[in-house]
Write a structure and sequence with these properties.
By secondary structure, this protein is α+β, with helices and mostly antiparallel strands. The chain has three domains: 18-108, SH3 Domains (SH3 type barrels), CATH 2.30.30.40; 121-220, Lipocalin, CATH 2.40.128.370; 230-292, no CATH class. The protein contains eight helices and 15 strands. The protein has helices at 2-14, 22-27, 88-94, 121-129, 223-226, 252-258, 261-274, 282-292; strands at 33-36, 42-45, 54-58, 63-75, 78-86, 99-103, 107-108, 133-134, 141-145, 150-155, 161-169, 174-182, 191-201, 204-209, 212-218. The strands form three sheets. The chain has an eight-stranded antiparallel barrel with strand order 8-9-10-11-12-13-14-15. Strands 6-5-4-1-7 form a five-stranded antiparallel β-sheet. Strands 2-3 form a two-stranded antiparallel ribbon. The longest helix is centred in the last third of the chain and has 14 residues, at 261-274. The chain is globular, with a radius of gyration of 20 Å. It starts with a helix and ends with a helix. It comes from Treponema rectale. This is SH3 domain-containing protein. Residues 31-111 form the SH3b domain.
Length: 293
């Protein structure tokens, strides 16, 4: 009996019961989207095989548009299927559907409530790197954290900015940034700043910086970024790309509806639908279903 409970505990810790196995995919023939359930991220490959090239990584809790179900495979003791997914940003850039393959054993059909309860420092790093940030819709400061510990902050539409590296401590609730600041003519020495973490939410981060409280939100809330989505030809530069990954998270529908409300949805609808982005809006849903079904 003791061995049984030990085995049960291991299974629960591994998240097995939340994995979508081959039986799920054989029973569900029509799937619109699923969520990533893998704290360390889920690799994207260019073909349904472990020998396929790795073309990218999906972050935990990202919502992905499902195209088709591929062959069965067992990975990490989980028997599931290769799943063909739409790559949204690459699709609108290329103006044609671009696909990738992921292992279905690390997908789920329900996104659990956001929680930091079991986080480590690495989880906090991945959280910071999911997309770029701004400190309010009218603020032009644009922050980007990267998994290689590099960091940058830029003042949009200017030559001002900073670059360097960062580290995190969940225990101390801090983000430490060491960076040089520069304009078109000069560059500072390395300056160290410690950001105190006040509150972590899925779509916002509250920090105390030098005694002042700042709320970091996805940078796509800033007009410079979201207006690009309303253009007939979506072609942002590399500098802008991290902003649009926020569209792949569970909060994206609410985020989109808050941006200039109905006017933005109407103007960006074609690009958002091509990207497979779901928005809880009656008019949008009709157009979405007409395009994808």
């Amino acid at each position: 009996m003791k061995k049984y409970f030990i085995l049960l505990a291991l299974i629960l810790c591994s998240g097995y019961f939340f994995s979508l196995d081959s039986q799920y995919f054989s029973s569900n023939k029509k799937i619109d989207y699923l969520y990533v359930k893998s704290p360390e991220g889920l690799r994207i490959r260019n073909k349904p095989d472990l020998s396929g090239d790795r073309t990218g990584v999906l972050y935990d809790r990202m919502r992905v548009k499902i195209i088709s179900v591929g062959k069965e495979i067992t990975i990490d003791g989980i028997k599931s299927n290769w799943i063909k997914i739409l790559l949204p940003i690459e699709t609108v850039q290329a103006d044609e559907n671009v696909y990738g393959w992921v292992f279905g054993g690390y997908l789920t059909d329900k996104a659990e409530p956001f929680s930091t309860e079991s986080w480590t420092d690495n989880d906090l790093k991945r959280y910071l790197c999911r997309f770029s940030w701004v400190t309010g819709t009218g603020n032009r400061s644009y922050y980007q954290f990267n998994l290689n510990n590099s960091y940058s902050v830029n003042l949009l539409e200017s030559g001002l900015g900073g670059f360097g590296e960062y580290s995190v401590s969940l225990k101390n609730k801090t983000i430490t940034v060491k960076s040089r600041y520069a304009d078109e003519d000069s560059e500072s020495e390395i300056i160290t700043d410690v950001y105190k973490i006040i509150k972590i939410e899925e779509d916002k981060l509250t920090l105390n910086i030098k005694g002042y409280e700042f709320i970091f939100i996805p940078s796509i809330n800033q007009k410079v970024f979201y207006e690009i989505l309303t253009q007939e030809k979506f072609n942002p530069g590399l500098f802008y790309l991290p902003s649009y990954y926020a569209l792949m998270f569970p909060f994206s529908s609410d985020l989109i509806k808050k941006i200039d409300s109905r006017d933005f949805i109407n103007k960006s609808m074609d690009n958002l639908i091509k990207m497979g982005i779901y928005v809880e809006d009656e008019e949008y849903e009709k157009a979405y279903n007409s395009y994808w079904n």
